[in-house]
Write a structure and sequence with these properties.
single chain, 257 residues, alpha/beta, Rossmann fold, Sc_DH/Rdtase_CS, sorbitol-6-phosphate 2-dehydrogenase activity, oxidoreductase, Sorbitol-6-phosphate dehydrogenase
């Protein structure tokens, strides 16, 4: 039986990689993104490569849109076996300059959207008796505080608590919930967008920022899309059917707890 994965934030960067990777793993893929053109492009490329995919436009912070997204996936692909919540935003600045509007927006995307998507997908899994999995793409900033990243770190810490609570809520329904705690994803659009802010934080030229972050990692390299995909594949599989409520470090040894 074919399995269906819904990837929220699947239209570019890590999300695009995961969408195509899971298609190669044999999943039918619903690529959901705030920017429909991005989702459509990724979906078209999956279909052109012999996979099966649909594109869905969604603002994951809006309840009605999340409900409509899940209903569309069920209508067109029949089920949802796996949710990967990959939507995320960040802003880097000192707490004294952090605006409430920016803080709330970061929490909305990184936490509230995860909650809404997990809730609506869980309803489908329970109704159809699907032994499913929910995976939140998180960050090492959800385990250790991050200078000039109070909004992002706060949301990611909260998402760990949400992951554990969802795992407890859904254990009786045979739905597993885990979080991937990523290290420095240096080639992601998100990290690239923060380079100017990180240069200010560190007091160095932008050209030196990536190497500075690499130097902090015991394995002396950044986290790659492939690193993430490998662990996601395992936690989505039946080989991980005794693992739930976990916050899995993918940090090259930079965070070990």
């Amino acid at each position: 039986m074919l399995k269906v994965v819904l990837i929220v934030g699947g239209g570019r960067s890590l999300g695009e990689y995961l969408s195509k990777h899971m298609a190669k793993e044999g999943y039918e893929v619903a690529v959901a993104d705030l920017v429909y053109e991005n989702a459509q492009k990724v979906s078209d490329e999956i279909n052109a490569s012999g996979g099966k995919s649909i594109a869905v436009e969604v603002n994951a912070c809006k309840e009605d849109e999340v409900k409509a997204m899940v209903q569309q996936v069920v209508n067109e692909l029949g089920r949802v076996d796996l949710l990967i919540y990959n939507a995320g935003i960040a802003k880097s600045c000192k707490i004294t300059e952090f605006e409430l509007q920016a803080f709330n927006r970061i929490v909305d995307v990184n936490l509230n959207g995860y909650f809404l998507c997990a809730r609506e997908v869980a309803k489908v899994m329970i109704k159809r008796n699907i032994k499913g999995a929910i995976i939140g793409i998180n960050s090492k900033s959800g385990k250790v505080g991050s200078k000039f990243n109070s909004g992002y770190s706060a949301a990611k810490f909260a998402a760990v608590g949400l992951t554990q609570s969802l795992a407890l809520d859904l254990a009786d329904d045979n739905i597993r919930v885990n979080a991937m705690m990523l290290g420095n994803l240096l080639d992601s659009d998100l990290f690239e967008s923060l380079l100017p802010q990180y240069a200010v934080k560190l007091g160095i030229p932008e050209s030196q920022v990536k190497q500075t972050y690499i130097d902090k990692v015991p394995l002396k390299r950044g986290c790659t899309f492939e690193d993430v995909a490998n662990v996601v594949t395992f936690y989505a599989s039946e080989k991980a059917n005794y693992l739930t409520g976990q916050s899995v470090n993918i940090t090259g040894g930079q965070v070990m707890h």
